[in-house]
Amino acid sequence: MPNKAIFFDRDGVLNVDFGHVHKYEDFQWVPGALAAIVEAKRQGFLVIVVTNQAGIAKGYYDEATFFRLMDQVKADVVNAGGLIDEVYFCPHHPEGNPPYRAVCECRKPKPGMLLRAINEHNIDPTRSFLIGDADTDIQAATAAGIRSVKFTGGNILDVLLQVGALDTTFIDSQSLSD
Ligand SMILES: [Mg+2]
Ligand SMILES: [Zn+2]
């Protein structure tokens, strides 16, 4: 049976978007984001991060720096009892530096990262969901046949519960047994 996934944009969804965040000291978790990842795993979803990282093309930081930060982010998630199954990132920008100067298929609003994830992880788009804070996130999800919600502030877990991406009954039964 194909997998179900929740796709998370990074900047503005997992962490507060201060612009081209690439240092752990600048990575401030958005309220409810860690809890949402933990709950998504508990409800059997793959957790996939899909993030445009044009700062690499623009020379603000390199891929190694991006990977280092993501390793720290993944460690935070594991410490909270969750797991990020995969991170897809687009390092390109049409006006960036070589070799990242490109009109690519992965930069959202193109669905390239989502289609690759669907293929590589045997994901059923119709059982999956994306949360992003930009119109380009929503456009990418729509192009890939994935339902989505635009995050405009508040608590990530609450939003995913409200739109029915995550099932409250899991949380209710959990808190009853506490
Ligand atoms: Mg964003
Ligand atoms: Zn790209």
Written account of the structure:
This protein is 37% helix and 13% strand. The chain is built from 7 helices and 5 strands; from the N terminus they run βαβααβαβαβαα. The chain has helices at 33-42, 54-57, 63-79, 112-120, 135-143, 156-162, 168-177; strands at residues 5-8, 46-52, 86-90, 129-132, 147-150. A 5-stranded parallel sheet has the order 3-2-1-4-5. α5 (135-143) links the parallel β4 (129-132) and β5 (147-150). α1 crosses α6. The longest helix has 17 residues, at 63-79. The radius of gyration is 16 Å and the shape is globular. The chain starts with a strand and ends with a helix. Bound molecules: magnesium ion and zinc ion (ZN).
Under CATH, the topology can be stated as Rossmann fold
Order of helices and strands: EHEHHEHEHEHH
**Ligands bound to this protein structure:** magnesium ion, zinc ion
The helix count comes to: 7
Q: Which structural class fits the helix and strand makeup?
A: alpha/beta
Low-confidence stretches: none
Based on Cα principal axes, name the global outline: globular
Gyration radius from CA atoms, angstroms: 16 Å
Tell me the CATH architecture: 3-Layer(aba) Sandwich
Helix content: 25-40%
Number of domains: 1
What's the CATH first level? Alpha Beta
Strand order of the largest sheet: 3-2-1-4-5
Query: Quick check: average pLDDT?
Result: 96
The end-to-end distance, rounded to whole angstroms, is 32 Å
Tell me the β content.
Answer: 5-15%
Provide the CATH superfamily.
HAD superfamily/HAD-like
Largest sheet: 5 strands, parallel
Strands, count: 5
